[in-house]
User: Fold this.
Amino acid sequence: MQDKVYTVRQYAARVLGQLGAHASKALKAGLLGLMQDKSGYVRYTATEAVGHLGAHASESLKAGLLGLMKDKHGDVRGAAAKVVGRLGAHASEPLTTGLLGLMKDESEWVRPAAVEAVGQLGAHASESLKAGLLGLMQDKSEYVRRAAAYAVVQLGAQASESLKAGLLGLMQDKSEDVRRAAAYAVVQLGAQASEPLKTGLLGLMKDKDQNVRIAAAYAIGRLGAHASEPLKAGLLGLMQDKSEYVRRAAAEAVGKLGAHASEPLKAGFLGLMQD
Assistant:
């Protein structure tokens, strides 16, 4: 772990993380030293190793993450954020609080990592973190806004109504990737999706991007008995979409609706058999 070649030290850190429960106290102590290595590559790998150790990470290693959250290299700060999320219930309050600062980081690569971590924390995410997540739904970076959509899904039942309402804005985002992420968020929320979110799918069914329309189709299928008649009617239109991939997604959605599929949808399905 003290080899003069940084790639050797980096490899040692990676292997140590893979040892998990089999890592000795001495090895973990050595990892703490690598978290303060002069090489950013080594510090990055050492940080990831703590995440792989998970519940087996010592308190000293967790405390060491606090310093890495302020590392001069954005990759290291982002890795530290992801590790906090991976630790979940084993993350200390100072660590979860530290995520608040990373959610405001200057790097557009660090902020998404912090957002992802909030989602992974789930029930262990504080109200302050959730409030911060709501603000990042309007971040200037599309990567951050997209990450925010997925974080709401990860929070699941822990997501506030305000966060779910925030998804409605992301469904109208200027970035097609963000709109697609918001649509998939509705897919995952399923019955937990609010009525405004379900209504928002109507607009996404007419989106110019085929991947957004595909996501909207899947969302309707996932809603099942909770899919409104207007949504089912919109699905009929997707069954006649110019894109074969959209038509296929619409067909799959009808199958998922099952007994809740309307007669017009069943009739439309017959047409797809001759596509």
Observations:
- The CA atoms of residues 206 and 213 lie 7 Å apart.
- The two ends are 62 Å apart (CA to CA).
- The chain has 16 helices and no strands.
